[in-house]
Amino acid sequence: NIAQLAKVKVMKRPGHWEDLHIPR
User: Fold this and answer.
1) pLDDT tens per residue, range 3-18
2) Which residues are CB-contacts of 6 (< 8 A; sequence separation ≥ 6)?
3) What is the Cα–Cα distance from 24 to 21, expressed in whole angstroms?
4) What is the pTM of this model?
5) Following CA atoms 23, 15, 12, 19 in sequence, which dihedral angle do they give, to the nearest 10 degrees?
6) φ, ψ for residue 20, nearest 5 deg
7) Given this model, what pLDDT does residue 3 score?
């Protein structure tokens, strides 16, 4: 479940991935 992840990858632009840290 994506809601249970503390960290997800987001692509702000093609080929550029950033970590998003989600508060629990």
Assistant:
1) 555 566 666 677 767 6
2) 21, 22, 24
3) 9
4) 0.21
5) 10
6) -110, 125
7) 59
Lookup result for tokens 């991935």? 17
Q: Do 2 and 9 form a contact (C-beta atoms < 8 A)?
A: no
Q: Give the up-direction half-sphere exposure of residue 3: CA atoms within 13 A in the CB hemisphere.
A: 0
Q: Which residue type is seen at 15?
A: G
Identify the residue whose tokens are 């479940």.
1
| Calpha distance 21→5 (Å, rounded) | 9
Helix (H) or strand (E) holding 20, with range, is strand 16-21
Residue with tokens 């994506």: 2
